[in-house]
Every structure is written in C-alpha cells, then in structure tokens.
Amino acid sequence: MINRGYCINYLLALMVILTLNFMLPRLMPGDPLQAIYGDEAMIAMTPELKEELISRYSLDLTQAGQFRAYIGSLLRGDLGYSYYYNVPVAAVLLGSFPWTALLVGLALCISTGLGLFLGIESGYRRGRTVDRLLLGGFMWISGLPDFFVGMLLLLIFGVTLGLVPLAGAVTPYTGQGWAPALIDGLRHLALPLASLVLARLTATYLLARNTMITTMGEPFIMTARSKGCSGPAVRYRHAGRNSLLPVVTAAGLQLSHLITGALFVEIVFSYPGMGALMYNALLTRDYPLLQGILLLSAVTVLTVNLLVDLLYKRIDPRVAYAH
Amino acid sequence: MLDIRGLTVRYSGLPVLKDINLTLEKGESLSIIGESGAGKTTLGLSVMGLVEGCCEGEILFQGKNLLSLKEEEIRRLRGREMAMVFQGVEGALHPLYTALDQVAEAIAVHSRKDAGSIRKKALGLLLSAGLDETTACFYPHQLSGGLKQRALIAMALANSPEILILDEPTASLDAGTKAEILALLNKLAGDRITIMITHDIHSAAYFSDRVAVLYGGRLIEQGPTGEVFKSPLHPYTRGLIRSCPDLSTTKDLQGIPGRMMPGVTGCSFHPRCTQRIHLCSLDIPEPVVTGGRLVACHRGGIVPLLEIKKLSKIFGKVKAVREVDLTLYQGETLALVGESGSGKTTLARTVMGLLKEDGGEFCLEGANISKRDAFFYQRVQMIFQNPMESISHRMNVLQAVREPLDINRPGDEEANNHLVRKALDEVELPGDQYFLNKYPHHLSGGEAQRVAIARALVLEPRVLIADEPTSALDASIQAKIIKLMLSLQEKRGLAILLITHDIALARKVSDRMAVMLKGSIVEEGPAGKLLGSPRHQYTRLLVNQSESPAKSMIL
Amino acid sequence: MHINYWGEIKRDSLGRAGMGTLVVLALLAIGAPIVSQYQPAEYTGAIFQPPSSQYWLGTNDVGQDIWAQLLYGARTSLLIGSGAALLSTFFSVLAGGMAAVLGGFGDRVLMRAVDALIAVPPVIVAILAAAYFRPGASMLIILLSAFLWPGGARLIRSQALSVKERMHIAAARTFGSSWPYLIRRHIIPDLGPVLTAILVLNFRRAVFMEAGLSFLGVADPTVISWGKMMQQALKFSYLEVWKWWLLPAGAALSMTIAALTFTGFALEKAINPRLKK
Questions:
Q1: For the domain bounded by A96-322, which CATH number is listed?
Q2: Residues of chain C with pLDDT under 70
Q3: Which of A144, A268, B141, C73 has the fewest Cβ atoms nearer than 10 Å?
C-alpha cells in the first residue's frame, strides 16, 4: 500500500517547482517573452516568429489560462523550444540525460556501499586508530565542495600527470570494438565519478558510523554475541542491518546532493551530461533549456525520494506494519 | 560441572568482581541476588566470555578454563554449551528479524543442517516456549513483553546448552506474566546448570535450589534457598529481605542505611553494617562454612547479642518462668507475646537483674554473664510500661536523661550534657534549656516515653528491652513511638525485645515472635510464618482474638 | 537541556580548530583593506604575475591582485553565509515555533508545506531563480534563506513540542503566563543548542551554495567571490596560473566549510551524549 501522505508531499513539491518555473520569467520586469528568451534572442527575432511564440506560450491569455496552457504542454512532453540548439528542449535533454544518469547512478551505488562499509567498520572499532584516522580524514574531505574536488583531481591526474583525458565522455573517432570503447568510456568516467564519490562519501560514512555506535550498545547485540555469532555476523547481519535504515532514508537526500553535485562536476570535466548543458544554457541564456534541465532534475529527485520511501517500508518491518 | 575459582574482573582497573568462588553441579539452579551495581551481570557475562574488562582466575567447564580460551574457541561454545538471556526484554531481540528467524539463526550458527529443518526445529522450540505458529513469525514489535521473553528463552535453549544464564528474566514483566515465565523456566530448565541473576528475591525463592548473595563484587553469603531466606546469616542478606515487600510481610519495610560504595577497604559492606567492628574496615572476611552455608563476615554472620538459656524464676510455689530459651540477634525485633500473667514482664525483669534468677544462664555477645555490672547495663537497657513512673518526679528532663551517664561515667558534665542533647535529638525532642528544665508532670505521655527512650539510649546500648512501651499512650502517639524505635533500629542496629500483649502491634514491628504461656515459650519463629500458620493452639487463639473484632467490623 | 555547549565545543579539539579557523577568517575579512594594499577590482596593469613581494598571490588574467580578491571573497562568503544562516533560522523558528504552538490544523498545514519544500532540491531551484534575478548580496541572502529554512523548521517544531511538555513550562503556565512570554523566556532559551546547531548547518550550506552559484556565474558579476574566482581560473588550467589562483580560492572555501563542519560536529556531540565517550 502506498502511503497517501508521501504522495501528497511529493505532489505538493512538484506543484511548487512547476509554479516557480512558470512564475519566474513572468516576475521579471518587462516583456515575459523577453524574460523567457533573453535580450539577445529578442533582437534577432522576426515579428512572425514573435507572434508564433506569443501564441505558443499563450501569452495573450490571462495568468490562469497561461498556467493551464503551461501544464497542458508539459503533459504532452513539450518542454519548450531551445533557441540556441534550434530543437525542442526535450530532444536536447534526451541526449545528455543518460550520461548524467550513468554518473549519478554509479556514484550513488559506490558512495552508499563504500560509506556503509567504512562507517560500519569504523563505528565497530570506535576510538581505535583506524576509526580516528577515517573520521579525521572524512571530516577534512567533507569541507571540499564537489566542484573543487573535481578541479583538484583534474589538475593532478589530468593536467599534471596526464593519466586520463581532460574532457568529454568518449574519445571521438576511435577504432571499433566494444572493449576499447568501454575502457575509453571508463577512463573518461573515472575522474568525475571519483570526485562525486569523494565529495558525497562523508555523509553516508558519518551516518553509518553514528548509527553503528548507538546500535552496538543495544541489548540485541549482546544476544547475538551470546548465540555465538561470529564477529562479521554481529557487525553486518545484526548491527549493520540497523545502520542500513538511516542510510537508505538519507539516500533520497543523498541523491538530491549527487544530482546537483553532478551538474557542477560535469562542468569541470566538460562531461556531456545535463550539467555541461546547463552551463552552456546559462552562458547562452537559453532559458527554456535551463528550465527544462532543472525541471527534469527536480522531478528525478522527487521520484527517487518517493521510491526510497516505498523501499524503506520493505526493509523496516516496524514501518510496514504501522500503516 | 561449572567451577568458578578466584574470579576477579576489572573494568579499566576498577575491580567489579573480586575473588568469586562458585561450584555448580549438573541440574543445579542458582540465583545470584544483590542490588544493582553489585556485579551480578558481570558474573554472567564472564561465564559467557563476553566481559569487556580484564579477568583473572579460572572458570572451569568441561575440563577447560573458559578464561584462557581464544575468542574463536569460546565463540563456538557460546549458544551451544552456554547461553544467556539478557536483561531488558524490549531491546534484546533484533527489531528487524522475526522471532523465528532469530531462533533459527541461533541454531544455524552451530549447525550444518539445511535451512528447512533448522526452521522446523526453531518453530518447535518456539511452540514449546509458548508461542504459536502465527506469533512465531511476528517481528518483535508485534509481540507482547511476555512473548518476547518466551522467544528469548527459546533462543537460549536452541542448542540445549549445558549452562543457562538468565539476567533479570522477569524484571520488566507484570505479575501474571512473571509467574508464567517462571513456571516455563522451571519446566524447561531440565538437568542443565541454571544461573538466574535477579534482584527480585521472590523469583529467586521460587526458581532456585541455591542462592548466592553478591555485594560490592564479593559473594557474602551462599546456601540453600529456603534456609537463606528463612534465616539469613549476613546482615546484608537480612537487609535485602527486609526491603522486599510481599503479601505476607508483617514488619514494616526497612531499608539498609547508606548506599553501596566502590573502593571500600576491608569488608565491602562495613560502611553500612550496624554490627561492624574495627577489624571489618581493615581485613576482607574469608567465606566460612557454617551449617552447610557460606558466609563472609568477620563476626560470623548476624551476631546473637543476648542468649537466654534455661532461665527459670519461681515465686514461692508459682513457676513464673520455666526454663525459657531465647536468643536475640543484632538488629532484629523479637516480640514476646502472651496474656497478662504469662510471665513476660518477670522474664524481662529477671534478665535485667531486677529479680534474681532461680536457674539458667545468660550470654551477652557470647560472654557468660554472672553479675549485672556496668558492662552489662551499658549494653542492655530497658524501657518501662509507664514512663511517668519510671522517671523520678524530682528530676527534670536533663537530670533524668543524664542519670545513666552520671552513674556509669561520672565526671565531665559538659560532655555528658552534650550526649543528653544528642539523645534527645535522636528521639525528636527539643534540647533547649526550657525543655531540659521541665519536670515529668509537665510532659505529655508521648513526650515522657520519648524521654524514657532517650534515657535508655544515652549509653548507646546494643539491646533494648521494651516492656509494653506504648500501652499507656494514645493510639496516635503509639504509632510515632513505634516508628521512632524502628528507625533507631535501622540506623544503629539495635536489637529490641518487645514485650506486648498486642498481637497486631507485634506483627507490625517484629522479625521474630515468641509466644509465652504460663511461664513457657510455646511457639517461636519468623513473625509472618508464625501468624500465618500458627501451630500451637494457644497461638491460634491469640491470633483469632486479635483478628475477630476487626473482621466483624468490616464484614 | 542544560548543556554548556560553548564549553563542549571548546573541549572538543575538532570544535576548537573549527572555531579558531572561523575567527581568523572573520578577522582577515574585516581587516581586508589593512592586510592588502590593492582593491580587489583594481587593475594593476600586470597580468598573470606569479606570486611576489608586490603581488602576494600574483595577478589574474586582467591584472587584478589575487590576494586582495581572496580577502574580499572571504567577506562575501561570511557575509552571505551568516546573513542567510540568521535569516533562514529566523524563518525556521517562525514556522516551526508557530506549528508547535498552534497545533491541530495550523500545525498540519504548516508541516505539509515544510515537507513539500524539503523535497524540493534547493540548489537546482536556486540556480534557476538566480539565473533570472542575477542577485546581488542582499538578494542572494533572501534567495538562499528561502530554500534553507524548511529543514530547520521541522527540527524546531519537534524540539519545541517536547520542550512544551517540560515541567517548568507547565509551571509558568500555572502562573498565567502568555504564549509570547513563554516563547521568549522559556522555549527559545531551551531551544538554544538546537538553534545553534541549525545556525551552523545553514551557515555551512549557504557558504556552499553561494560558492556554487557564483561558480556557475549566475550571481551578480560585480560581487567578488571565491566561486567566481575558481570559475575564471578554471578557464586557464593549461597555464601554471591555477597554482596561485584556483588553489587558494578553493582551499579558502574548503577551509571555511570544514571549519563549519567541525564546529557543527562538536555541537552535535554536545547535544547527543551517546556519541561521546
């Protein structure tokens, strides 16, 4: 059963985002079309095109009518028209979304898995050298903004050492064969992925470690040990299972950070995902494209959060039966 | 057989258990009682090899010393050869696995069987522990406290361990569930060694063959359950029993003065003990076997203060007291009840030397008393039925209370006056000049009896003989005087021989009772037992007499 | 909760390091005109100069002194960070406190709104809004606060609800005290530790977001900012210049955020005694 409360929250959040998307250009002083397309585009625009765009955005209607028309076109999958690329926004997004999804998906898996593992091991050995080193190290790393981590990695491994390519996701016009192509893709992916994981690992690690510390004091850990469970069984099956809960809860939030982080990291590495696209849109003031990118990111975050909430009920029986 | 020898456990240098020696035969059940912080749980954990601190000594089991085993070796034994049910039903089960899963895991850890047969066995265990097929598959949060405890017991018994350790198995359960769990434990214990850690002496009394009392990390008393609870040897054991109410409690609850403190030299109980001697603060008492029981006390347990042996008193042809034997222990109240003319007062007066005995002897603190001298009167004092009469009307309060001091330790008047004020303060009377100058006829009945008590206490006696101390007082005053006497007993370990004809009063204040009829003691025993199931018909008569008016009023 | 959290932070070595760094940064930011002989926007005429006694950290592509830019960047970071932290915490207290005090329907409506806003990814929406508004410093503070407050509001509500049940509040109510009085004299002081923690957390997020927005170049281009310095420096990564242009700006930003993290961590330890030992 899907909890109604969750859904209403996410629907409301979606409404907030849509309204913002709709309102922002219209809040600007002057012609909304000018706000949507920016000053440069307006100068180059022919009167016919302008007419067409006005009717396209229903700018001749009342505010309420405009909003209805806006939602309607969104439902048809019409995200607007990119002035700069001269194609519909949806088509541009489709080209770069998979790259970002690949980057963020991998980063989420790696940072959650690694963060859990390190957090559990570190919390289990609280106060010992390993724990102190890990904790201290992660505290420092957590201060680094993701784009700065990216720049450091780029400058060290790319520029100075020349180990990996500096930009892009694939090397154009290379030979055939899937194996070289895969290796090439991984070589391009390595640094952006590493910077995202490094920047986001701390949150998972700290969460897992803190839960681990409180869990290790629970009586059921003693019960497990008195059964004769081995050290790893106590650590993972008993204490670790408990530390998984807050980490999963936080995964939605984590994803939101990862997506925004990816936007920045992609800019640093010119990785052809939505981040690079956004940077370009910002530079060229391609507002419809910008709106589309942000709308897509926000909707992805909301969807994944909803999924996490649903998943959570499957791993915590207490929640499942409470509803 | 489980044999614990010289076990000492330290947490970061601080000893929690000191030199524990315990031997348990197959099939034996032992309760470890004591207040929180005594080290009970640590004892259980050290058998399981789960103690975080550092252990010395030996825990011998199946020919192996558990303390010298490697972690992996003892892990293989845990759950298979020894199992423990932990305190705190709420948290002891993992919240994310079903009861069945958790019991099955306990089996799977030590077994190579396939998952199906393990689950079947686990279900069987849960069923025999009182869950059913539905509840067995529940998560802990869906189970009641009692069912959780049953699941935990099933889990502990999963591999039928030789040793079962139960840490406060009934602590958080309500009375009905508690009884069910205890019955279940009794049924399932079988021929294994069972150790129950508890602060609840009723559970201990119900469940175990033997009791070990732990205080400040040391075993201070050990013996068969019935005997330990009926006649505790160590003052702490008695204090513990006195602090626990049950429906047959006769005497008011009495605490133990002070609280448990770490880092005490000598006997760990001595700061709270009312019969301590200088040695107690210096040396640790060795456990000594006395009558099949073990007690660790420099004084050999609760001291018999006053022993009366074959005492007789004859007035002409009337044998007022016939070969009476009575023993009064340190810190207890012995009520001597009987109708008027039964010889109670004569007995008291003979003890005090006011009448010459016609046979028999006395011992005071083990020493034979041939004549009543200052030594005797400084230790044994008496208060009389009518306080107004026992205080000379020519003496004011100061003089009256100081009289025993003037007689026994004449000299320093200022010091004696100070002692008088202290004694008056103890009986909750003012020590100002105005009150000190009052004469008996200025005092109310209650005040006069307090002055009499202060006068008896000013020499700091060990024994107080109180002959109908409240019969001349109003009921409301009586209650206060009795409470005063009991609080003095708790504080100073005073032994009180209370002579009264009022069974109801005796019931509220006495640990033991002796019934006197025509100069003889016809029945003697713990007050609750004696009144609950009187054996002598005269006792029954007395009990009925004091019950019936009250009963007829209520019914 | 009677915690001397100041003392707790001072006892914790990480907390001490964090607080110390913040104080040094604040002093440098305030004393920027004294510590640097150049104005950040001033063209010195020499471009891409390596560090020297004249230009401590060299100059950039248009000949501005990087050391001066770094110092004035600290001003921006700390100003916008603290401004947004204060304003968003004020919003949080307002919304959370009101929800707790109102209860019932008002509570449900407010919390529903908060839940919805928490689900909105703040940086993404902030980018969009900033792209339109091109905000200056004060506008940026308002913009960031608008996306930072919901998390704190939820925390404050739950804390205030538990505080509301405490004995001394009940006692004050038996004397007939009004809710404004209670909030001023009892609830807010009791919320002290949580408020401080939220303040530090929001400070950290605001510094982070400001840097991100100026890195994207969506903030007011006349404002000197570490994020903008990094954006511009990145364009010249093929030159040696990044060593004294990009790295100091990134390091300063990282240090500020780390200092805030340490302070927050020490605070959390003080509030949650289970993490201590």
A1: 1.10.3720.10
A2: 1-10, 48, 55-56, 165-167, 175-176, 237-239, 271-277
A3: B141
Q: What is the pLDDT of residue B335?
A: 92
Query: Is there a contact between A321 and B142 if contact means CB atoms under 8 Å apart?
Result: yes
| Residue of B47, B74, B94 to mutate for A, most A C-beta atoms under 10 A | B94
Which of B268, B295, B322 is the endpoint of a domain?
B295
ipTM for this model = 0.77
B265: closest CA of chain A, how far (Å): 32
pLDDT at B512 over 70: yes
Q: What is the pTM of this model?
A: 0.74
Residue type, A307: L
Mean pLDDT of B283-310: 85
- Please check whether residue B261 lies inside any domain of the structure: yes
Domains of chain A, by residue range, sit at: 18-75, 96-322
Contact residues, chain A, for C121 at CB < 8 Å: 256, 259-260, 297-298, 301
Residue A7's identity, in one-letter code, is: C
**Are chains B and C touching, using the cut-off of 8 Å on CB pairs and a minimum of 3 such pairs?**
no
Domain encompassing residue C207? 11-43+53-276
What is the distance between the alpha carbons of residues B422 and B427, in angstroms, rounded to a whole number? 9
Model confidence at B32: pLDDT above 90: yes
Whether C4 maps to a domain, the answer reads no
DSSP strand pairing (B82-85 vs B318-329)? unpaired
Nearest-CA distance from A202 to chain B in Å?
26
Share the mean pLDDT of chain A.
Answer: 81
Residues contacting B66, CB < 8 A, separation 6+: B47, B49, B59, B60, B74, B77
Question: In the predicted model, what is the mean pLDDT of residues B180-184?
Answer: 90
> Which of B266, B295, B324 finishes a domain?
B295
C-alpha distances in Å from residue B299, one per residue of A157, B290, B366: 81, 12, 11
Same domain, B458 and B429: yes
Put simply, whether C276 touches A (Cβ < 8 Å) is no
DSSP one-letter code for C51: P
Chosen from C14, C132, C218 to mutate, greatest number of chain A CBs within 10 A: C132
Q: What is the CATH number of the domain that holds B400?
A: 3.40.50.300
Within an 8 Å CB–CB cutoff, is residue B73 touching chain A? no
Number of DSSP helices (H) and strands (E) in chain C, helices first: 12, 0
Note whether B281 and B209 are same-domain residues.
yes
User: How far apart, in whole angstroms, are the C-alpha atoms of residue B25 and residue B48?
Assistant: 17
Q: Count CA within 13 A, CB hemisphere, residue B334.
A: 26
Number of domains, chain B: 2
pLDDT for residue A188 is more than 80: yes
In a domain, C129, yes or no: yes
- Quick check: B155 and A318 CB within 8 A? no
CA distances (Å), B533 to each of B205, B249, B527, in order? Answer: 19, 14, 10
Q: Tell me the chain C residues in contact with residue A100 when contact means C-beta distances shorter than 8 Å.
A: none
Residues B265 and B316 in one domain: no
AA letter at C154: R
B316 with B168, same domain? no
pLDDT at C105: 84
Could you say which of A238, A315, A316 has the minimum Cβ distance to residue B94? A238
- Tokens linked to C67: 């050391």
Q: Which of A219, A233, A317 is nearest residue B96 as measured by Cβ atoms?
A: A317
Q: CB–CB of C117 and A214 under 8 A?
A: no
Q: How many domains does chain C have?
A: 1
**Cβ-nearest to A230 among B75, B95, B102:** B75
Q: What is the CATH number of the domain that holds C268?
A: 1.10.3720.10
How close does chain C come to A13, measured CA to CA in Å?
A: 4
